[in-house]
Amino acid sequence: MASMESSVPEGDEGTGMNIDHVKLMLQAEHDQVQNRTFTNWMNTQLAKHQTPSTVNDLFTDLQNGHRLLDLLEVLSGQQLPRERGLRNPIQWRSNIETALKFLRKKSIKLVNINVPDIVEGRPTIILGLIWSIILHFHLEELAGSLEFSRPPSVESLCSLDSESSWSPPRRHSPSLHTKWKVSARKALLLWAQDKAKKVGIEIHNFNTSWRSGLAFLAIIRALQPGLVDMEKLRNRTNRENLEEAFRIAEQHFNIARLLEAQDVDVVNPDEKSIITYVSQFLQFSKQPATGEWESEELAPLAQPSALFRNKLRPFHRDQEDLTRKAEEITEWLSQNEKELSEALVQAVGVRYEEKYQMFQRYDAAINDRKKSIMAVLSALKKASSPPGDRVRLKQTWTKLRATMKEWEVALDYSLPPPLDSVGAWVCTVESHLTEDSTEELDYEEAASRAHTNLQMFKALMEENKVHLGILQDFAAQAGAGGVAQTVPQQKMEELLRRFMGVRVTAKHHGVRLEFRASRYSVLALLSSSTVRLDSWRGPYTDQAKVEHLLLDWKGFVEGERFPARVEAALDRLRKAVGECVSRAALAGDHEHVTNCLREAESEWSERSKFLWDVKEVLERVITTWGLYREAGRSLWGWFSEAHKMPIPSEVLY
Question: Where does the Calponin-homology (CH) domain start and stop, copy by copy (predicted)?
Fold first, then answer.
C-alpha cells in the first residue's frame, strides 16, 4: 500500500487522479478478500445442507440459484420451492427470484439487487447480497442475544459508522442490540472490546485493530484462558500471531478459517470480512456450556438410554469437599466408560442409525460434563489435595476418551457401502495427521519411518478425489430413499466437514512430512560417518594400517560418493525448509525448521573439512613412512659398508 501512496505525484490535478486510482485499487483488494471470506463462510453453511455442496467461484456458482436456495434453507430451516433444471436459464431466473422474494419477506433490504445481476455474476452485487444475508441471518440474531450490565460508552457507539440495524425488535427482555439502539456491528464491536479488555488489549474498530492478531488472541484467551499466553506473543510478527489465532480457533473452537493472515496484515483490512469471522467467536460463546464445578451437579446420562441406570446423588458444595467431588466424578466416569464399552460390543449388528443415536446420547451427556471435569482437575492441581485423586481422575477420563474414540472409529468403518470406504479413509488420514512428531535419536530408523509415512500419506491423498465423489453422490441420494436414507444427516454433515478439514490440513502435513524425512536422511548420513571419522583420526602405529585407512577413506568418500549423497540430501532438506517457510500457515514452524537446516549445514561443513583434511594427513603419514623406511635402508646399508672397511692405524693408535 505504501508503494501506491508514494506514487501519487505532487499537484492538485495529478493528486486527484492518483487518489482515485488508489481508491479503486483498495476497493479491488477488499473485494478480493470479501470474495474469499464469503466463499469460505458459504461453504461452511452449505456443508450443513441435506445435500451438501461447495462453492468454488462465488460469481458463477450462484447463477442457477440452487446453491443460493440451499444456503437460505440452511440458515432459515425452511424448505424453499425450486426448479430442478441446471441448463435452462429461465429456470435459473425462477430460482433466483424465489430466493430474492424470500429475503424481501424477511425485511432484508436488497438495494439494486436484481435477478439479471446474479445470473450475469456481477461481483459487487453478489458480494452485497451475501453480506446482507450474513448480516440478517448470522450477525443480527447473534447481536440480538447480547446483554451488558451497563450502557455502552459514547466512544464505543461512535467507533463505527452510523448504519443502523433493520432487524425487527425482539419481544423478550431487551438486549444490548435493542435496548441501546445500536447496530448489530456496533453490538459485536462492544462485545469484542469487552472480551479483549480483560487481557489488556484495546479494540477500536473492525479493521486496523485486528492487524497485529492480538485482538483475535485476546478474545480466544477471554473465552478459554489456558489456550493463549499473551506475553509470549507481543514480540512475534503480525502474521505469526494471526496464524496462531486462526489455528487455535479452528482446532479448539471449531471455528472455520474464513481469513488468511495476508488478508488481515495490510494497512486497511476489509471490515466486512473481519466482522464475518469475529461473529463466529460470538456464536461460539453463546453455545450452552456447563458452569464451574462449584455450581454444577454431575447427573447421570439422560434417558431414554437403558444403559444409564447408575444414579449418582447430586454434588452439594455445602456437604462435600473437593476430594469427595473428585471421587464421585471418577466413579461416574468409570461407570460410564464401562457402559460405553459394553454398548460398543452390543452395537454389533444393530442398524446404523440406532447405533449412531446410541453414541450421540453418550457423547452429548459426557460433553455436558466436560467443563465440570476440567474444572475439578484444575482445582485439584492448584489445591493441596492428595496427588492420587488427580491421577485417578485423569486416568479415568483418559480411558473414557479412548473408548469414545473406539466408538467413533467403529461408526466410520461401519457406514453402509460405499460410504464406509470414505469413513475409513477420513479416519486413516486423521490418524496420520495426529501422529507423534517428537525428536528421535535413531536417525536411520527415523529416516526410514519418515520416508515410509510420507509415501503412505501421498498414496492416501491420491485417493481423495475418488472419495469426494462417493461422498457427494451419496449425499445427493439421501432424499431419494434407499441405503443413503439410513445415515443420519448429522453424520453426513460431520463426515463432509471432517473430509474438507483433512484435505486442507493435509497440504501442510505433507510439507511437514517432507521436512521430517529430509532432515532425518541428512542426520542418518552424518551419523553413519561418525565411526569412520573416528577411526581415521589414528593412532598411526604402522604403515600398513595407515594404508588400510586410506583405502577405507577412498572406498567411502570416492567409491560410495558420500559427500555427493550428503549434498543431495541437504538440497532436499533446503527445498523442504523453503516450502515450509513459504507457507504462512506454518509460521509456527519457521524458526524450528530454519534452525534444523542451519545445524545440519554447520555439522556437514565441519565434517566435510575434516574429510579432506584427514586424507591429506593419511597421505602425508604414508609418505613419511616411506621416507622413514628409505632412510632406514640407506642408513643400514651405510652401516654395513662401514663395517667392512679397514680401520686406519692412526685411529687404532
Answer: 32-138, 182-286
Q: What is the pLDDT of residue 143?
A: 66
**20-144+180-285: CATH class:** mainly alpha
What separation in angstroms does the CA of 321 have from each of 20, 300, 379, 385?
70, 20, 11, 10
Q: In this prediction, what percent of the chain has a pLDDT beyond 70?
A: 79
Cα–Cα distance measured from residue 89 to residue 94, given in angstroms and rounded to the nearest whole number: 9
Please check the confidence at residue 266 and state whether its pLDDT lies above 90.
no
* Separation between Cα atoms, residue 651 and residue 155, nearest integer Å: 121
Whose cell is 485439584? That residue is 380
User: What are the pLDDT digits (tens) for 571-605?
Assistant: 999 999 998 888 777 777 888 899 999 999 999 99
Contacts of 184 (CB under 8 A, 6+ apart): 135, 139, 140, 142, 143, 144, 165, 167, 177
Of 503, 493, 495, nearest to 46 by C-alpha is: 493
What sign results for the dihedral spanned by CA atoms 102, 103, 109, 113? negative
Q: DSSP string covering 414-467, please?
A: TSPTTHHHHHHHHHHHHHHHT------S-HHHHHHHHHHHHHHHHHHHHTHHHH
Residue among 586, 579, 601, 566 nearest 437 (CA): 586
**How many C-beta neighbours within 10 Å does residue 415 have?**
22
The DSSP letter of residue 236 is: S
d(CA 441, CA 81): 63
Name the band, by pLDDT with cuts 50, 70 and 90, for residue 74.
Answer: confident
- Tens digits of residue pLDDT in 502-553: 887 888 888 989 999 999 999 999 988 888 888 888 788 888 888 888 898 8
Domain 317-414 fold = Methane Monooxygenase Hydroxylase; Chain G, domain 1 (1.20.58)
Q: Residue 437: is it exposed, middle or buried by C-beta count within 10 angstroms (0-12/13-18/19+)?
A: exposed
Distance (Å, whole) CA 400 – CA 394: 10
Locate cell 444409564: which residue? 308
How far apart are the C-alpha atoms of 214 and 493, rounded to whole Å? 32
In whole angstroms, how far apart are CA 571 and each of 138, 347, 517, 597? 49, 53, 13, 10
- Report H helices in 114-213: 115-119, 123-133, 141-143, 154-157, 176-179, 184-197
- Residue 104 corresponds to which cell in the numbers above? 424481501
